[in-house]
Amino acid sequence: MELKIPPPVTSGSLTFKVNRREPELVSPAKPTPRELKLLSDIDDQEGLRFHIPSIFFYRHNPNAYFDPVAVIRRALAETLVYYYPLAGRLKEGLNRKLAVDCTGEGVLFIEADADVTLAEFEDKDVLRPPFPCFEELLFDLEGSSEVLNAPLILIQVTRLKCGGFIFAIRLNHVMADGGGLSLFIKTIGEFARGCHAPTITPTWERHLLSARVPPRVTQTHREYDEEAETPTEDVDTLVSKSFFFGGAEMSAIRNLLPPNIATNSTSLETLTAFLWRHRSAALRPDPNKEMRFMLIVNKRHRLKNPTLPPGYYGNAFAFPVAIATARDLTEKPLEFALRLVKEAKASVTEEYMRSLADLMVMKGRPMFWTDGAYLVSDVRNLADIDLGVWGKPVYGGIGKAGVVGFPGCSFFVSAEDRNGERGILVPVCLPEEAMQRFVEELEGVFNGQSVVSDIGGNKINRKLVMSCL
């Protein structure tokens, strides 16, 4: 195959080349059924009709005498025998209903080499989103990111000079959520280690999350409020940064709360409420504007009637919304935002999920409301994915902040800082000036200052006792 040599990728003083071979289609290693399989009514909503990228960095294993590209390519073909719908193509039917045509055509696969070492990423502190080379490490082939009639997965495996490698994957989100993606990649790892079958057999069973007959919306789903059309306006340049929250940072945030509330709140709840509040202040919206927060609430293991099989890899979550005016959110204490977050999280019952599926059918699979919205998804489970003899990744998680057409989305990634402390890494995307204010907001909290800003940039006194960074 012809070797493609693009221009160097540069981030500050980190410059390197990525040489890619021609993309190929990897199909299942054995014949698979040709059939049309309907997606669930949770899967095919408008807000999931995009491709979501993830990336994993693996160290060199001196005891591994295998080419990671060859091993992963073979393991992928064997995995697709069991996950054969992922080798098909999506079709759209009546009422925008999606189904996968199990053609067995395969998924896109790119073999590449980069003249850089993993140590260089670590030395330059760029082993976190936004990655300096992301577009080269997961190359966007023309037409490959379409929702219909396009490959459902794109994988690029890039060898590094040190013997390590990068595994990058982009998945059509209607086919699987983070838990489903984790099952799929872990199965690739099992075949890479020489297994002959998956530990957890994948199951389709998408009817388990399809609408009832007749459909009936019994819950309030304000995340799908009908959004008024607004004139298109020029927006500031968007900037992405990642923020690390270790023990000291989480202690500082909890110190903003009454002790009884801090003790009875999870790290996820506490951090999301904090980010929602300070991100909103940095944006400086109109004081009366509704600011929305949505948290991905996964029900994969909590549905009872019926339960989902262990190998279910479809989307099994909702993103309930918390709503507050910008004034209330930024001027009231943090426990106000935290209470709203916890109430939204608790609202996702089994009936909520059934009602959500029914709403999709009755309202034509709408998009969630994005104006003034901030969405958070916890993907820390991706950090433990073992791809065979190379062990767990140095970094494993989402490739960047935001999703297609919606920058107001952050993902919680499990990561280590330079001192080896494990914490939560959160990529954030904001307009340039808002990002500057957001950084100042966080520095004010973590440096022990007794003030935070409201939406007008005014300082509000707070009695704080906080740890330093």
From TrEMBL:
Transferase among keywords: yes
Pfam families per the UniProt record, alphabetical: Transferase (PF02458)
Superkingdom of the organism of origin: Eukaryota
Record carries keyword Transferase: yes
Alphabetic keyword roster: Transferase
InterPro entries linked to this entry: CAT-like_dom_sf, Plant_acyltransferase
Gene3D superfamilies hit by this protein: Chloramphenicol acetyltransferase-like domain
Molecular functions per Gene Ontology: transferase activity
Assigned protein family: Belongs to the plant acyltransferase family.
Name listed for the protein in its UniProt record: Benzyl alcohol O-benzoyltransferase
Naturally occurring in which organism (per UniProt): Eruca vesicaria subsp. sativa
